[in-house]
Amino acid sequence: MQNNIFATMRSLKIMEGCKGTQVYALNPSGTGGGGGVGSVGEKFLQHLQDHLRVNSIRSKSTRSFQTNNVQVDNNTVLAEALATYGLPQSDLLEPVIEPCLKSVDFVDTLASVYRRIESCPQFEKSGMYLEQCAIFRGLPDPKLFRRSLRSARQHAVDVHSKVVLSSWLRFERREDELIGTSSMDCCGRNIECPKNSLVSGYNPESVYDLCTCSQSRREDTDAEISMGDDECSTSEEDFDMSFCIGDDEVRCIRYNIASLSRPFKQMLYGSFSESRREKINFSQNGISVKGMRAAEIFSREKSVDSFEPDVVLELLSLANRFCCEEMKTACDAYLASLVCDMERAMLLIEYGMDETAHLLVAACLQVFMRELPSSVRNPNVTRFFCSAEARERLALAGHASFLLYYFLSQIAMDDDMKSNMTVMLLERLGECASKSWQKQLAFHQLGCVMLERQEFKDAQKWFEEAVEAGHVYSLVGVARAKYKRGHKYEAYKMMNSLVSDYSPTGWMYQERSLYCSGKEKMMDLDTATELDPTLSYPFKYRAVLMMEESNIEAAIQEINRIIGFRVSPDCLELRAWFSISMGDYEHALIDVRAILTFEPNYMMFHGKLHGDHLVELLRHHVQQWSQADCWMQLYDRWSCVDDIGSLAVVHHMLANDPGKSLVRFRQSLLLLRLNCQKAAMRSLRLARNHSTSEQERLVYEGWLLYDTGHREEALAKAEESISIQRSFEAFFLKAYALADSNLDTESSSFVIQLLEEALRCPSDGLRKGQALNNLGSVYVDCDKLDLAADCYMNALNIKHTRAHQGLARVYHLKNQRKAAYDEMTKYIDKARSNASAYEKRSEYCDRDMAKILMDDHKEAEAISELSKAISFKPDLQLLHLRAAFHDSMGDRISTRRDCEAALCLDPSHADTIELYHRAREPSDEQQQKERS
């Protein structure tokens, strides 16, 4: 059986057409080895070619191979097949350099941003929130980034910023993947309305109001205004001059034409000869008779709404030539109102840029941006952005900005980090950068892209530019580029200085470990893990090292340590590789299915084998399940909090029935549990697209809106769904969205009623357990601890294992700390994916430990305990608690800093606001000094 599976793997190696995003390559090119299978792999490949005859025709069925009368041991075949794809080698593993802003003192950075947002002028707040976006971009919680993005849009003043930010908010929801939607559809609020975005002015209070664009559609006129009728409306004697174009005359009122602009005024009333003529030859000015008649009508009526678009384009050109600002503004607005799809945008943007029509170009850009990401792959669109000349043309029209290129470059990096388009957009980003943080970001990301392209000299140059602009983290990039260029000792010295000069962090030791060996390397890796247990590279390195020492079971245990805390496709791939090498195809298949849930196009084994093909190979070697078996498996794995196993079962179910919206929805819930929101949103969109009823579709749309920060819109979807049919999911969505606020007694009672309504509707134990768990949480918030305990016990009775967390919280609030700790221990014993369990248990233990230390007047030790966690996870609650400890010690400066950092994460956190205001009040002693 092993012979069959690896023979087929060998045959699939020749595939060249499959491309995909590889989150982490096990054997990347670098110093000490090349790309591809590597030298070891090439030797084994040659050995296979000599001794094995492989059927190289691709197929979904398992192939068999024949030996040339050579009996090959199964273990040998296994080793050779793995080597064909390139065995993972510890000396070729590298940590990823994050392409985002990263601070050496993140708490101080958060506090600084909060202070500057609070103190800056209103019209500058949008730019400050954009900086906050850049800081939050590197955090695992995308909701923080989206909240800042909404705040930036809320405080935007000019049309350009509104257009870009509204389009970016829409892109974050990826509505392009929703069947039946148009790019110019409005979500119902001013904040993303395409028409509202084209209105200049500062009005932050109205952005969340309901949009009225559907009520203000421009009515088409029944017929073009007759020139003769207009002439009848003005008496013949009023016309006192004519413009002659060819053989035609356009009768005008001199005063009205002169009022269009200063050049016309000088022409008609100044020292020019035309001021003394009744007939002026206008044939050489590029305007038709029809266009000139329109200009005459505009001079009287101040409107272009009755003209055809081609006439308005003529008027726009005339307005530019003779500086007729009022007419240009009218033409600009009219033409902008016509831009409603890609075809018109492509047709009109050239006119807009040639005539520097700000609003028209904005409307065209808005269509391009609301069509992302597909439009960024269209060369006819990207030519307006990528080159330096294109940026200059945009600048003339008022649309070249750091904001625009930040948005476009992020999408390009996600699409293809190595592409020329990505490089060009980042270069334009750097050209638009004016503030320090903007230069840091642009240059650092250029360095990351050049490093990925293996253009190491350029990468070093850009990283050095970023360092010069103040981005200390870019020193990691400088060191890596030097290392790639053969200067390992220089890289080591640089990272050694970084560790010495700043408060040490996990990523500093992780990077330094690349440039040393032996015990020193392992010490750095261990220190990196101690300082930041979320870093995956140290675990991967140690695991691969154990595999090289033939200790595969220990390697799996090591990689399990990070997977239990933070799931990522690269770590799952490594574990799958280990499982295959042990012949444990069942666990390998589980991991591969989970990987494909995160990244459907993931390429295994250094990008040489599509994950779907590996699933086909592995699934013939494990027990096959029916759909009924899958539901049983899902219930069991969900109950024991085996999230990876649950994802694998769901992937299996969807392979058999890809249109099952309910299963897609369950998939999204699992992904959210694992903090994989991007993949979760994709699953939700697919659930919505495959929904079989209107009320079901509304629920999924509601969840999409809620998870991207549109709470009110989510509530509206839930209510609309309930009005069609009462269902568990609609009531649950409404209760969940309502609970996401500071609930008063009345609101809490309403949420309780909604959850009780949900529990009365048909559903299964998986979801009812979740509803009972949430109901218990509301009871806890209402201080009804006994009712909460009943809910958690009922949830546990239907195997909702996570209810142990809620029960532990109840015991904790009752000061039954041992019971709380024991309850979490039960959770850990039952849960397979127990990272959150350990985290919660440590939360109860560590916070209590900190409070005990405070009670024993060991404030410094308490703060030290909290600081360890804050250094790699700046959690709101931990920051608030440390601020309170600083306050009790009278350290107002540290109290304010921690409060500011916490409020940067959540500006509405009431307890922190109260503590912050108290810390800012001058002490009695200080007040006495000021009075004296």
From TrEMBL:
UniProt TPR repeat ranges: 769-802
Going by the UniProt record, its keywords in alphabetical order are: TPR repeat
Which SMART domains would you find in this protein's record? TPR
PROSITE patterns linked to this entry:
TPR
Any Pfam family from its record, for instance, is TPR_8
Per the record, the domain of life is Eukaryota
Query: What is any one GO biological process for this UniProt entry?
Result: negative regulation of ethylene-activated signaling pathway
* Pathway(s) where this gene product acts: Protein modification; protein ubiquitination
PANTHER family in alphabetical order = ETHYLENE-OVERPRODUCTION PROTEIN 1, ETO1-RELATED
Quote the protein name from its UniProt record.
Ethylene-overproduction protein 1
